[in-house]
Amino acid sequence: MNRSILTTILFLLSCTVQAQTNYVSLSTSKGNILIMLYDETPNHRDNFLNLVKKGLFKDQEFNRVIKNFVSQGGELDETILDREKLNPQVPVQRLAAEIRPELFHKKGALGAGRNDNPDKSSYLDQIYLVEGKIQTDTELDTLEVKRGIKFTPAQRETYKTVGGLPRLDQDYTVFGEVVSGIEAAEAINNVATAKNDHPIKKEGFTIHILSKKEISKIAKP
Q1: Which own/partner pairs from 217-220 qualify as long-range (CB within 8 Å, at least 24 positions apart)?
Q2: Which terminus in the chain has less CB density within 10 A, N or C?
Q3: Containing domain of residue 155, as a range?
Q4: Based on the structure, what is the number of domains in the chain?
């Protein structure tokens, strides 16, 4: 699919979500990625914004990149879980899931990573951008039966035209989406990686929270 067409489709899809309050920009070696955070997931939104304000996502890196799957940043599972094992007296910190069926894993979705816990609660500081792939009706039908979920006609059309990772739906919290700069996200997802999925060349990023003035300019020509 032509990238300019894809960018337009992603923007139009974002317009189907109720107007949002907060946007962030990821500055990467491949270009800037503009992300809209969902007001429908306030705890994940606020946690993320607070971490950005504290400087956690300054000069961070995509440390786990799987082609046609996700590009992940923040702390790795191993780092988090090893620290928790070494400090059993410290209460485990997780963010309660905010899974909403209308917020799904289309290409460009921003999700919160987690370990395999029954509550599907999220790590505080692990994020991922969905790359995924184009789906077929047969694949979506199979997932509906296997997972006991139901995709709306709009979600089906999105998965069949834009792509994504429907098998993650209703298992992980999605709390934002790319509204521009999808080309940069694609480029990051295509970098060369080692066997542990870590990019061979560091792929860093810094996150900037847009001001109200900057947000007001987004929809303007």
Answers
A1: 218/23, 218/34, 218/179
A2: C
A3: 3-215
A4: 1
Q: Please indicate, yes or no, if residue 221 is contained in any of the structural domains.
A: no
Give the whole-angstrom CA distance, residue 33 versus residue 42.
Answer: 21
pLDDT digit string, tens, across residues 128-180: 999 999 999 999 999 999 999 999 999 999 999 999 999 999 999 999 999 99
Average pLDDT value over all residues in the chain: 92
Select from 50, 86, 89, 68 the least CA-distant residue to 132.
68
100 lies in some domain: yes
* CATH code of 35's domain: 2.40.100.10
The pTM score is: 0.90
Distances (CA, A) of 167 to 60, 143, 176: 28, 7, 18
51 occurs within a structural domain = yes
Cα gap 13→10, rounded to integer Å: 5
